[in-house]
Amino acid sequence: MHNLLSWRGLFLILAIWGAIHPMYYFLRFMRVEGGGLGGLIDAWYVNDSTTGLTWDLTIAAIALTVWVVRDTLQTRRWSCLLAIPATFCIGVSCGLPLFAFLRLGGR
User: Fold this and answer.
1) pTM, whole model, 2 decimals?
2) How far is 31 from 64, CA to CA, in rounded Å?
3) How far apart are CA 78 and CA 81, in angstroms?
């Protein structure tokens, strides 16, 4: 991967994987356990391990959002703002590589 295009392709693949793979487990959990989104969120706080991971991802999501906003204001690459809803609606596993993909692209 020596050129910009191949790096963009890698980040796009990671964004797609980061959207699909975790979502598979979230949807499966909600289907099997019931309770919908509320039940899923409750499971994030079931013990100290999951609570710690939830906070880890929350802080990472906030840091990514600050970075995206700052970078977007500097570069005027408004499409990069799509990484914010991807981060909070899907997860950091999608939002971060999506931001890298969009950031490496043209205006």
Assistant:
1) 0.88
2) 30
3) 6
3-state helix, strand, coil in the chain (%, to 5): 85, 0, 15
What distance, in Å, lies between the first and last C-alpha atoms of the chain? 22
At position 88, the amino acid (one-letter code) is F
DSSP assignment of 5-26 equals HHHHHHHHHHHHHHHHHHHHHH
Two tokens at 91? 């997860």
| Strands, E assignment, 4-89 | none
Give the model confidence (pLDDT) of 3-34 as tens digits: 666 899 999 999 999 999 999 999 999 999 98
Closest CA to 14 of 89, 88, 107, 86: 86
